[in-house]
Design brief:
The radius of gyration is 22 Å and the shape is elongated. It has one domain. By secondary structure, it is of the alpha+beta class. Helix 1 runs antiparallel to helix 2. Helix content is 44%, strand content 19%.
Length: 142
């Protein structure tokens, strides 16, 4: 049986995952023009990979096995090629005059940010609803 606190734990895991997603989006946007990194070459866009993980220690019956929380499995680099822009005067230009810029598309990142923001807002709404239900349940005992 899944209770109020388990539901809060599930909602909190979603909020934490979306916070990680927002942080990676911010990192991608901040490095959209970084042509040189410590590893060499341009910055590579990163994405969090989410997985459904069983709710820790709360499996009581067959119905509970289907209930999962969200976890960030890893941060994965985007495999798309960097953009090549002709700028022969740039210090990182190759012999042909092309500079390799990160594979970060600002419009795509903004769409991802809006999606993550809305998912976070939905998670906050569910936590607020759970709080209201818990308060109402406590009020019954008075």
């Amino acid at each position: 049986m899944i209770g109020t606190f388990s539901a809060m734990e599930i909602a909190a895991s979603g909020l934490s995952a979306e916070r990680t997603r927002m942080n990676t989006i911010a990192s991608n946007l901040a490095n959209a023009h970084t042509t040189r990194t410590e590893a060499g070459g341009p910055y590579k866009r990163i994405d969090p990979v989410f997985v459904a993980a069983p709710l820790d220690g709360n499996v009581f019956d067959a119905r509970s096995e289907a209930i999962s929380q969200v976890r960030v499995d890893r941060l994965q680099e985007d495999t798309r090629d960097p953009m090549r822009v002709y700028e022969p005067s740039h210090p990182d230009a190759d012999p042909d005059g092309y500079v390799r810029y990160p594979n970060v598309n600002v419009v795509e990142e903004m769409v991802n940010m809006i999606t993550a923001s809305r998912a976070y807002e939905a998670g906050v709404s569910s936590v607020e609803s759970l709080k209201g239900m818990a308060k109402a349940a406590l009020g019954i005992g008075r």
